Description:
The complex is a heterodimer of chains A (114) and B (111). With 114 residues, chain A is mainly β. Helices cover 0% and strands 54% of the residues of chain A. In chain A, strands 2, 4, 5, 9, 10 and 11 form a six-stranded mixed β-sheet that branches. A five-stranded antiparallel β-sheet of chain A has the order 1-3-8-7-6, with no helix packed on it. Chain B is globular, with a radius of gyration of 13 Å.
Amino acid sequence: QQKVQQSPESLSVPEGGMASFNCTSSDRNFQYFWWYRQHSGEGPKALMSIFSDGDKKEGRFTAHLNKASLHVSLHIRDSQPSDSALYFCAASDPRGSALGRLHFGAGTQLIVIP
Amino acid sequence: GPKVLQIPSHQIIDMGQMVTLNCDPVSNHLYFYWYKQILGQQMEFLVNFYNGKVMEKSKLFKDQFSVERPDGSYFTLKIQPTALEDSAVYFCASSLQYTLYFGEGSRLIVV
């Protein structure tokens, strides 16, 4: 059973639009969350981390975490064609050596249409 | 940003042979990891490594797998012998604290 579930599987938005991604964890020990982006043929790159309840904003990217429901979301405003990529949610148990063991979701493929 | 380098970028190997994947982590990072990704799907944790020791490994980290970082050189993943199901992209990552930085991956094809 996957411990990190992402939706939707794929998403198309027009250039300048808003892209929204959802992620839910089934393990209550997962308290730290990241969003990673992977362009085709490259390694994943960390976009944002979020460890506390509420919103975290960095430029065009906003993440929201609700620890009670184990739900985290990512919103990209003013989407650009260069944002087209695979977006992964990753979660971690912050206790001891488990902190670095990221559990990834299956990813959401974003296509931004010019 | 911080760069993790991986060598080779891709390799084709006969089943049963040994392969070594090399990783040059970010210079001041202390924690090192290997992840496996099949066909652009989700990343699966294999192992993490700190202070010369394996900290944690997953069920995917079979007995045929081993990791080491001798004297601060490359952090390596060795598979001996390889099996067909080992075909995947292997990503090395390193971290100082919480956020992992990934390399570009080593695509392994076992035939």
